[in-house]
Amino acid sequence: MNGINEHVTIVLVEPQSPGNIGMVCRAMKNMGLTRLRLVKGCDRFHPESLKFAVSARDLLERAEVYDDLASALADCALTVGTTRRHGKYRQEILSPVEVATLFNENIIPGSPAAIVFGREDSGLTTDELSLCRWHATIPSAAEYGSLNLSQAVLVFCYELGKVAASPGGGRLEQVATSQQMESLFGQLDACLQKIGFLNEQNPAHIMRSMRRILFRATLDNREVAILRGMLTQIDWATANFDGRKSS
Fold it and tell me: pLDDT at position 190, please?
């Protein structure tokens, strides 16, 4: 298998079981994926990890390790955070099939993509999910919905494998990377605080909604540059604004 799989990275955030890391490598290689990134977590070269990786030890050896999720996603244009829970900040949750379709339609050469999986016991935090363009879950039984980490990875890799052989719709524009989007969000946050739009006690509440709106737009590099230019102009035009509404 090739195609989109060449551009997709699996990211594990603080994996707790060495055996799970090994089994994830095996699941990835079964479906033709070779890019693995780890955010901290247990020792990837633990005997259990090597044991369960079987013939996928090469993926284990080439895995990249990062100190935080933002760094691991910095160069990725398309990002999906997985979650089993729904809630206020976990909306518009996609299925593995929908994720594969989105990747197939949007990936272009030089446009890395990532699927992020959280800790075995608690998953990803709300802040970690907010770094991802989309959220996804695997439909499962209400009585026992928790999947083993490697099982969850395998399901997503399988769906990616199914679309890998078919031609994608493709894009002409380069989707903005995670790092570019985070720079935009940082500038937007500062601008909205300056003009008094955000609640000083809880600015993250509105900013999470702004993230969802702008992520949903799947902005390209030029569009991000336009928005940042607009924010720069607003910042200049409100240089003497004290943040209070006029009476």
Answer: 93
Residues ≥6 apart with Cβ < 8 Å to 186: none
Whether 155 and 110 map to the same domain: the answer is yes
Higher pLDDT, 244 or 39: 39
- 111 and 225 share one domain: no
Please list the residues that pair with 36 across neighbouring strands. 10
pLDDT at 58: 96
Domain check: are 19 and 139 in the same one? yes
Surface-to-core class of residue 201, CB atoms within 10 Å of its CB (0-12 exposed, 13-18 middle, 19+ buried): exposed
Looking at residue 244, its pLDDT comes to 61
pLDDT at 172: 56
User: Could you tell me if residue 87 is inside a domain?
Assistant: yes
Enclosing domain of residue 201:
178-237
Task: From residue 194, give the alpha-carbon distance in Å to each of 41, 206, 243, 244, 245.
Answer: 38, 14, 6, 10, 12
Q: Give the H or E element holding residue 243.
A: none
Give the residue-averaged pLDDT of 5-28.
95
Q: How far apart are CA 201 and CA 36, in angstroms?
A: 38
